[in-house]
């Protein structure tokens, strides 16, 4: 590099660091520190999570508990002193689980632990029994000859892998989303899959599943992993394996629930806001502590910790989405309703990956926003959060409709998901699986992020 271009480079660097320094004053950075320390020590998110999962419990959309959760959220946002609290309607296909039981009949009778997938139809009242056909993957099932599963139960034994960022989930979930449709196309009368799970416990993992118009609906289930191993061992040893199952569920047509929203109003640009939140609903088997009571509690508490210190330039909006588990219905309703002013969102992040430590921070913003991002990253570093500079964050599931409709500034505060899929969507998703110390760290990370995004000089925007 020649001296002159080196000089230009040095000048550009010092100019950009001068600009960067202007994003936040010394006083603002002192306030960030104050919020980070208060949130790191406070029990507020733990108290909220304890209350939601204990006093309300499971929150399947449309149930009495779901209504209680909406009332709970509204009441607590008001008690925390949010400047505005309101609800917005969301509709969804309502579904209930009433009964599920199963047995291996042949070659040797034994219990089989399984659960209906969300949206599954019932078996006949007396149940059904049939021979089980094993596939290792969904693609193997798709490749099976037409009619080859007539009168049989299709079983996919795909194993998801364990990793910190949960990258095994997407490939495994394919079999949950469309396995029953593909099995029915080949003539199967019921569908079983290995749980989308990394665990060794004997709980089955539920989750959303879908039917397709024109394809016969068949009961769709997930088997606990040790039971999936048992079935596979029997079949691979050459036995004809026969199973009976009885699933009783109900499709209740269109249901209604509510996104619950709380906002602390910004002092300079009140219409612009940082969106943080989680989803208020949960599956019915556990108490939805990791998924997603933690996200609800920690984002509510993060906003409160900010407001205890100051009202930033822009508003902080906590959105607690409805009916996520049945297909992102609350998120779809929210981003449709606010379609005309999505440009007002200066940063969006959803916490919906449990409550293990936030280990990394990642943005998805335009170049002009990056100096703010780097300053936020510097203030997250004391919490042990590293900065991922890829600038291609996906955010949480409820931000998918936002990403699909506009180029919004999206952020990920990556939680360590190594153990998340041990408990996800099971009876075992309960409060004791959340570590209060880690929940504090999550709350502090969200508080630092939301405060700085709302208080920066530059209004951040998407790519
Ligand atoms: Zn979730």
Automatic annotation (TrEMBL):
One of its GO terms (cellular component) is lysosome. Keywords: Carboxypeptidase, Endoplasmic reticulum, Glycoprotein, Golgi apparatus, Hydrolase, Lysosome, Metal-binding, Metalloprotease, Protease, Secreted, Signal, Zinc, Zymogen. The keyword Thylakoid does not apply. Residues 1-21 form the signal peptide. It comes from the Bacteria. The keyword Metal-binding applies. Residues 259-447 form the Peptidase M28 domain. One of its GO terms (biological process) is proteolysis. It is found in: Endoplasmic reticulum; Golgi apparatus; Lysosome; Secreted. GO terms for molecular function: carboxypeptidase activity; metal ion binding; metallodipeptidase activity. Pfam families: Peptidase_M28 (PF04389). Homodimer. The monomeric form is inactive while the homodimer is active. This is Carboxypeptidase Q. It comes from Pseudoalteromonas peptidolytica F12-50-A1.
């Amino acid at each position: 590099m020649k001296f002159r271009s080196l000089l230009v480079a040095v000048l550009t660097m010092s100019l950009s660091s001068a600009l960067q320094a202007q994003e936040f004053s010394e006083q603002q950075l002192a306030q960030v520190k104050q919020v980070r320390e208060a949130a790191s020590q406070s029990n507020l998110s733990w108290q909220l999570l304890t209350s939601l999962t204990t006093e309300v419990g499971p929150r399947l959309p449309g149930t009495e508990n779901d209504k209680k959760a909406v009332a709970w959220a509204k009441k607590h946002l008001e008690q925390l002193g949010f400047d505005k609290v309101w609800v917005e309607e969301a509709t969804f296909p309502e579904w209930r689980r009433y009964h599920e039981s199963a047995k291996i009949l042949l070659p040797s009778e034994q219990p089989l632990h399984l659960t209906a997938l969300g949206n599954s139809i019932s078996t006949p009242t007396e149940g059904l029994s049939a021979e089980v056909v094993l596939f290792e993957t969904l693609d193997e099932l798709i490749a099976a000859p037409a009619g080859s599963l007539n009168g049989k139960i299709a079983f996919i034994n795909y194993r998801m892998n364990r990793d910190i960022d949960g990258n095994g989930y997407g490939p495994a979930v394919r079999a949950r989303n469309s396995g029953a449709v593909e099995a029915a196309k080949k003539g199967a009368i019921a569908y079983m899959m290995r749980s989308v799970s990394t665990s060794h416990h004997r709980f089955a993992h539920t989750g959303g599943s879908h039917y397709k118009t024109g394809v016969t609906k068949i009961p769709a289930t997930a088997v606990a992993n040790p039971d999936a191993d048992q079935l596979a061992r029997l079949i691979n040893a050459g036995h004809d394996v026969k199973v009976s199952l009885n699933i009783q569920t109900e499709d209740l047509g269109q249901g209604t629930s509510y996104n619950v929203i709380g906002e602390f109003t910004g002092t300079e640009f009140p219409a612009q806001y940082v969106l943080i939140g989680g989803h208020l609903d949960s599956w019915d088997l556990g108490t939805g502590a990791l998924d997603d009571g933690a996200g609800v509690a920690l984002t509510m508490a993060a906003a409160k910790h900010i407001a205890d210190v100051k009202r930033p330039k822009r508003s902080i909006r906590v959105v607690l989405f409805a009916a996520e588990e049945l297909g992102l219905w609350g998120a779809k309703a929210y981003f449709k309703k606010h379609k005309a002013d999505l440009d007002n969102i200066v940063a969006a992040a959803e916490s919906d990956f449990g409550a293990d430590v936030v280990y990394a921070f990642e943005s998805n913003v335009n170049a002009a926003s990056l100096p703010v991002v780097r300053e936020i990253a510097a203030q997250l570093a004391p919490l042990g959060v590293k900065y991922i500079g890829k600038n291609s964050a996906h955010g949480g599931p409820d931000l998918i409709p936002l990403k699909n409709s506009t180029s919004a500034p999206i952020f990920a505060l990556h939680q360590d998901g190594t153990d998340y899929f041990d408990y996800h969507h099971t009876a075992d998703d309960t409060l004791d699986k959340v570590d209060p110390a880690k929940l504090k760290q999550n709350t502090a990370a969200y508080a630092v992020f939301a405060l700085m995004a709302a208080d920066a000089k530059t209004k951040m925007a998407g790519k």
